[in-house]
Amino acid sequence: MYAIIKTGGKQYRVAAGDKLKVESLNAEVGSQVTLSEVLAVSDGNELKVGAPFVEGASVTATVVSHGRHDKVRIFKMRRRKHSIKSAGHRQNYTELKIESIAA
């Protein structure tokens, strides 16, 4: 059984037992999080697709940790102008462990 969920403006395909890193959520480590924006649910034989969300479906996950991704380097250079701009960015994330999918 798997589900397609939406969180943080992105879509993820999840199954029970999966670990995934999503955009930062405001939740404590070890707490349960219910993700109610379920776009599709499949039990292996049948696929339920929502319009836009599946009615009554939810995914329960546990917050494993919070952290920051690796640094992404931004480098801009204008040739022949003696102009260089360099920066970096680290995005925050929340790591979730999917416990169950309720259809």
UniProtKB/TrEMBL annotation:
The keyword Zinc does not apply. Keywords: Ribonucleoprotein, Ribosomal protein, RNA-binding, rRNA-binding. InterPro entries: bL21-like (IPR028909), bL21-like_sf (IPR036164), Ribosomal_bL21 (IPR001787), Ribosomal_bL21_CS (IPR018258). Part of the 50S ribosomal subunit. Contacts protein L20. NCBIfam families: L21. PROSITE patterns: RIBOSOMAL_L21. This is Large ribosomal subunit protein bL21. Belongs to the bacterial ribosomal protein bL21 family. It holds the Pfam family Ribosomal_L21p. This protein binds to 23S rRNA in the presence of protein L20. PANTHER family: 50S RIBOSOMAL PROTEIN L21, LARGE RIBOSOMAL SUBUNIT PROTEIN BL21M. The gene is rplU. One of its GO terms (cellular component) is ribosome. It comes from Parasutterella secunda. The keyword Calcium does not apply.
